[in-house]
Structure prediction request, 292 residues.
Amino acid sequence: MTTTELKPPIFLIGNYRSGTTIAQKLIGLHPDIVTWYEPRTLWLYADPARRHDEFGQTDATEKVTRYIRDRFLEYQSRNGGRQIMENTPSNVLRVPFVHEIFPEAIFLYITRNPFSCVSSMELKWQRTKTFKGIRRTLSTTPVTQIHYYAKDFIKQIIANKILKRKYTPIYGPRYKGIDRDLQEHEKLTVIARQWARGNQKAREDLARLGSGRVFSFRYEDLMQDPEPVLRRIYQHCGLDCTDDIVRTAKEMIDPGRQQKWLRFEPKDLTAIIPEIRDEMAFYHYEIPQPLR
Prediction:
Protein backbone atom coordinates (compact mmCIF):
# COMPACT_ATOMS: atom_id res chain seq x y z
CA MET A 1 0.00 0.00 0.00
CA THR A 2 1.41 3.38 -1.03
CA THR A 3 0.43 6.23 1.29
CA THR A 4 0.94 9.93 0.68
CA GLU A 5 0.14 11.17 4.19
CA LEU A 6 2.18 10.32 7.26
CA LYS A 7 0.17 9.18 10.26
CA PRO A 8 1.25 10.74 13.59
CA PRO A 9 4.23 8.65 14.72
CA ILE A 10 4.34 7.29 18.25
CA PHE A 11 7.71 7.90 19.89
CA LEU A 12 8.80 5.84 22.88
CA ILE A 13 11.34 7.94 24.77
CA GLY A 14 13.45 6.03 27.27
CA ASN A 15 17.06 5.55 28.22
CA TYR A 16 19.12 2.57 27.09
CA ARG A 17 18.26 -0.64 28.96
CA SER A 18 15.09 0.92 30.40
CA GLY A 19 12.69 -1.61 28.93
CA THR A 20 12.04 0.23 25.67
CA THR A 21 12.31 -2.95 23.60
CA ILE A 22 9.69 -4.96 25.49
CA ALA A 23 7.41 -1.91 25.73
CA GLN A 24 7.69 -1.40 21.98
CA LYS A 25 6.86 -5.05 21.34
CA LEU A 26 3.77 -4.82 23.54
CA ILE A 27 2.49 -1.77 21.68
CA GLY A 28 3.36 -3.48 18.41
CA LEU A 29 0.80 -6.19 19.19
CA HIS A 30 -1.87 -3.86 17.80
CA PRO A 31 -2.61 -4.76 14.15
CA ASP A 32 -2.61 -1.10 13.05
CA ILE A 33 0.91 -0.48 14.42
CA VAL A 34 4.28 -1.21 12.82
CA THR A 35 7.33 -0.89 15.06
CA TRP A 36 10.63 0.64 13.95
CA TYR A 37 13.56 -0.45 16.09
CA GLU A 38 16.34 2.09 16.58
CA PRO A 39 17.01 3.76 13.21
CA ARG A 40 19.86 5.46 15.05
CA THR A 41 21.76 6.98 12.12
CA LEU A 42 18.58 8.48 10.72
CA TRP A 43 18.42 10.83 13.72
CA LEU A 44 22.09 11.77 13.22
CA TYR A 45 21.52 12.84 9.61
CA ALA A 46 21.86 16.52 10.51
CA ASP A 47 25.44 16.06 11.79
CA PRO A 48 26.84 12.50 11.85
CA ALA A 49 30.28 13.76 12.93
CA ARG A 50 28.97 15.33 16.15
CA ARG A 51 30.64 13.90 19.25
CA HIS A 52 27.44 13.94 21.30
CA ASP A 53 23.79 13.05 20.73
CA GLU A 54 22.23 16.33 21.86
CA PHE A 55 20.31 17.79 18.92
CA GLY A 56 17.90 20.72 19.31
CA GLN A 57 15.26 22.62 17.38
CA THR A 58 17.77 24.56 15.30
CA ASP A 59 19.21 21.29 13.98
CA ALA A 60 15.85 20.49 12.40
CA THR A 61 16.47 22.49 9.23
CA GLU A 62 14.11 22.27 6.28
CA LYS A 63 16.43 19.79 4.55
CA VAL A 64 16.79 17.60 7.63
CA THR A 65 13.07 17.67 8.39
CA ARG A 66 12.16 16.76 4.83
CA TYR A 67 14.66 13.89 4.73
CA ILE A 68 13.59 12.30 8.03
CA ARG A 69 9.87 12.70 7.37
CA ASP A 70 10.31 11.16 3.90
CA ARG A 71 12.07 8.14 5.42
CA PHE A 72 9.20 7.72 7.88
CA LEU A 73 6.67 7.91 5.08
CA GLU A 74 8.62 5.32 3.08
CA TYR A 75 8.67 2.99 6.08
CA GLN A 76 4.94 3.47 6.65
CA SER A 77 4.22 2.75 2.97
CA ARG A 78 6.38 -0.40 2.97
CA ASN A 79 4.42 -1.69 5.94
CA GLY A 80 0.88 -1.45 4.68
CA GLY A 81 0.24 2.14 5.74
CA ARG A 82 0.30 1.22 9.43
CA GLN A 83 1.11 3.85 12.05
CA ILE A 84 4.78 3.85 13.08
CA MET A 85 5.81 3.22 16.67
CA GLU A 86 9.52 4.18 16.93
CA ASN A 87 12.13 3.63 19.62
CA THR A 88 15.66 5.07 19.61
CA PRO A 89 17.02 5.39 23.17
CA SER A 90 19.45 8.23 22.35
CA ASN A 91 16.39 10.38 21.69
CA VAL A 92 16.26 11.03 25.43
CA LEU A 93 18.81 13.73 24.55
CA ARG A 94 16.95 15.24 21.58
CA VAL A 95 13.23 15.53 22.33
CA PRO A 96 13.06 19.15 21.02
CA PHE A 97 14.66 17.99 17.75
CA VAL A 98 12.17 15.11 17.35
CA HIS A 99 9.22 17.35 18.19
CA GLU A 100 10.32 20.06 15.76
CA ILE A 101 10.34 17.49 12.95
CA PHE A 102 7.12 15.78 14.06
CA PRO A 103 4.91 18.35 15.84
CA GLU A 104 1.95 15.98 15.46
CA ALA A 105 3.70 13.10 17.23
CA ILE A 106 2.45 11.08 20.19
CA PHE A 107 4.98 10.64 23.02
CA LEU A 108 5.46 7.91 25.60
CA TYR A 109 8.15 8.03 28.29
CA ILE A 110 9.50 5.01 30.18
CA THR A 111 11.88 5.00 33.14
CA ARG A 112 13.58 2.17 35.02
CA ASN A 113 15.40 1.79 38.32
CA PRO A 114 18.92 3.16 37.75
CA PHE A 115 20.67 0.22 39.42
CA SER A 116 19.09 -2.19 36.95
CA CYS A 117 19.96 0.14 34.06
CA VAL A 118 23.56 0.58 35.18
CA SER A 119 24.01 -3.17 35.57
CA SER A 120 22.61 -3.92 32.11
CA MET A 121 24.51 -1.03 30.51
CA GLU A 122 27.81 -2.15 32.04
CA LEU A 123 27.44 -5.52 30.31
CA LYS A 124 26.64 -3.79 27.02
CA TRP A 125 29.80 -1.70 27.30
CA GLN A 126 31.74 -4.99 27.22
CA ARG A 127 30.35 -6.20 23.91
CA THR A 128 31.29 -5.22 20.39
CA LYS A 129 28.52 -4.59 17.93
CA THR A 130 27.41 -7.75 16.12
CA PHE A 131 27.37 -8.01 12.34
CA LYS A 132 23.57 -8.19 12.57
CA GLY A 133 23.60 -4.92 14.48
CA ILE A 134 25.99 -3.35 11.98
CA ARG A 135 23.73 -4.35 9.08
CA ARG A 136 20.71 -2.88 10.86
CA THR A 137 22.57 0.36 11.54
CA LEU A 138 23.78 0.74 7.98
CA SER A 139 20.34 -0.04 6.54
CA THR A 140 19.11 3.40 7.62
CA THR A 141 22.36 5.24 6.84
CA PRO A 142 22.74 7.38 3.71
CA VAL A 143 25.56 6.07 1.51
CA THR A 144 27.33 9.43 1.77
CA GLN A 145 27.52 9.07 5.58
CA ILE A 146 28.54 5.43 5.98
CA HIS A 147 32.21 6.30 6.54
CA TYR A 148 31.35 8.08 9.81
CA TYR A 149 30.07 4.82 11.33
CA ALA A 150 32.54 2.42 9.74
CA LYS A 151 35.29 4.16 11.71
CA ASP A 152 33.51 3.54 15.03
CA PHE A 153 32.90 -0.12 14.20
CA ILE A 154 36.60 -0.63 13.46
CA LYS A 155 37.56 1.06 16.75
CA GLN A 156 35.26 -1.31 18.66
CA ILE A 157 36.74 -4.39 17.01
CA ILE A 158 40.31 -3.25 17.67
CA ALA A 159 39.58 -2.41 21.32
CA ASN A 160 37.88 -5.72 22.14
CA LYS A 161 39.27 -8.31 19.77
CA ILE A 162 42.85 -7.13 19.28
CA LEU A 163 43.75 -5.03 22.33
CA LYS A 164 41.55 -7.24 24.57
CA ARG A 165 40.17 -4.28 26.49
CA LYS A 166 37.24 -4.98 28.78
CA TYR A 167 35.07 -2.16 27.44
CA THR A 168 34.23 -0.79 24.01
CA PRO A 169 35.31 2.85 23.41
CA ILE A 170 31.74 4.09 23.93
CA TYR A 171 28.21 2.73 24.21
CA GLY A 172 24.85 4.36 24.74
CA PRO A 173 23.72 8.00 24.84
CA ARG A 174 26.54 10.47 24.31
CA TYR A 175 25.78 13.43 26.54
CA LYS A 176 27.87 16.58 26.18
CA GLY A 177 31.18 16.04 27.94
CA ILE A 178 31.13 12.23 27.91
CA ASP A 179 34.52 12.02 26.15
CA ARG A 180 36.15 14.00 28.95
CA ASP A 181 34.37 11.96 31.63
CA LEU A 182 35.63 8.72 30.09
CA GLN A 183 39.18 9.96 30.60
CA GLU A 184 38.67 11.17 34.17
CA HIS A 185 36.19 8.77 35.81
CA GLU A 186 35.44 5.10 36.34
CA LYS A 187 33.14 3.45 33.83
CA LEU A 188 30.30 2.98 36.35
CA THR A 189 30.32 6.71 37.07
CA VAL A 190 29.97 7.50 33.37
CA ILE A 191 27.17 4.95 32.99
CA ALA A 192 25.36 6.45 35.99
CA ARG A 193 25.65 9.89 34.40
CA GLN A 194 24.22 8.50 31.16
CA TRP A 195 21.15 7.41 33.10
CA ALA A 196 20.80 10.59 35.16
CA ARG A 197 21.49 13.17 32.44
CA GLY A 198 19.44 11.34 29.83
CA ASN A 199 16.46 11.01 32.14
CA GLN A 200 16.67 14.59 33.37
CA LYS A 201 16.87 16.07 29.89
CA ALA A 202 14.05 13.91 28.54
CA ARG A 203 11.85 14.62 31.56
CA GLU A 204 12.34 18.38 31.36
CA ASP A 205 12.00 18.59 27.56
CA LEU A 206 8.86 16.43 27.49
CA ALA A 207 7.30 18.57 30.23
CA ARG A 208 7.65 21.61 27.95
CA LEU A 209 5.39 19.98 25.35
CA GLY A 210 2.40 20.70 27.55
CA SER A 211 -0.22 18.85 29.55
CA GLY A 212 -1.60 15.69 28.00
CA ARG A 213 1.08 15.34 25.31
CA VAL A 214 3.07 12.62 27.08
CA PHE A 215 2.19 9.46 28.98
CA SER A 216 4.92 8.48 31.45
CA PHE A 217 5.26 5.09 33.11
CA ARG A 218 7.78 2.98 34.97
CA TYR A 219 9.19 -0.28 33.61
CA GLU A 220 8.67 -1.95 36.98
CA ASP A 221 4.95 -1.10 37.03
CA LEU A 222 4.51 -2.46 33.51
CA MET A 223 6.22 -5.73 34.49
CA GLN A 224 4.46 -6.25 37.81
CA ASP A 225 0.91 -5.33 36.76
CA PRO A 226 0.86 -4.98 32.98
CA GLU A 227 -2.84 -4.69 32.21
CA PRO A 228 -3.67 -1.25 33.70
CA VAL A 229 -0.43 0.29 32.43
CA LEU A 230 -0.83 -1.18 28.96
CA ARG A 231 -4.44 -0.06 28.69
CA ARG A 232 -3.43 3.51 29.60
CA ILE A 233 -0.62 3.43 27.04
CA TYR A 234 -3.03 2.30 24.33
CA GLN A 235 -5.59 4.91 25.37
CA HIS A 236 -2.99 7.67 25.15
CA CYS A 237 -2.09 6.48 21.64
CA GLY A 238 -5.74 6.33 20.55
CA LEU A 239 -5.62 2.55 20.17
CA ASP A 240 -8.09 -0.13 21.25
CA CYS A 241 -6.52 -2.50 23.78
CA THR A 242 -8.43 -5.76 23.40
CA ASP A 243 -8.50 -8.61 25.91
CA ASP A 244 -6.56 -10.74 23.41
CA ILE A 245 -3.76 -8.14 23.33
CA VAL A 246 -3.64 -8.05 27.12
CA ARG A 247 -3.52 -11.84 27.32
CA THR A 248 -0.68 -12.04 24.79
CA ALA A 249 1.20 -9.24 26.55
CA LYS A 250 1.09 -11.06 29.89
CA GLU A 251 2.58 -14.15 28.24
CA MET A 252 5.47 -12.07 26.88
CA ILE A 253 6.41 -10.43 30.18
CA ASP A 254 9.06 -11.79 32.53
CA PRO A 255 8.79 -9.91 35.85
CA GLY A 256 11.81 -11.65 37.38
CA ARG A 257 14.55 -9.49 35.86
CA GLN A 258 14.92 -6.79 38.48
CA GLN A 259 17.87 -7.72 40.72
CA LYS A 260 20.83 -8.36 38.41
CA TRP A 261 22.62 -5.34 39.90
CA LEU A 262 23.36 -7.49 42.97
CA ARG A 263 26.34 -8.90 41.02
CA PHE A 264 28.27 -5.70 41.88
CA GLU A 265 30.13 -5.03 45.11
CA PRO A 266 28.00 -2.70 47.32
CA LYS A 267 30.89 -0.21 47.55
CA ASP A 268 30.93 0.19 43.77
CA LEU A 269 27.21 0.99 43.65
CA THR A 270 27.39 3.23 46.70
CA ALA A 271 30.01 5.33 44.87
CA ILE A 272 27.54 6.22 42.08
CA ILE A 273 24.64 7.22 44.34
CA PRO A 274 25.61 10.95 44.24
CA GLU A 275 25.26 10.80 40.45
CA ILE A 276 21.71 9.42 40.49
CA ARG A 277 20.14 10.34 43.85
CA ASP A 278 18.36 13.55 42.78
CA GLU A 279 16.93 12.10 39.57
CA MET A 280 15.77 8.93 41.37
CA ALA A 281 13.52 11.04 43.58
CA PHE A 282 11.43 12.22 40.63
CA TYR A 283 10.45 8.63 39.81
CA HIS A 284 9.99 7.49 43.43
CA TYR A 285 12.88 5.05 43.35
CA GLU A 286 14.45 4.31 46.72
CA ILE A 287 18.04 3.45 47.45
CA PRO A 288 18.14 -0.31 48.20
CA GLN A 289 18.63 -1.23 51.84
CA PRO A 290 22.08 -2.88 51.33
CA LEU A 291 23.41 0.43 49.94
CA ARG A 292 22.07 2.78 52.60
The CA atoms of residues 80 and 92 lie 29 Å apart.
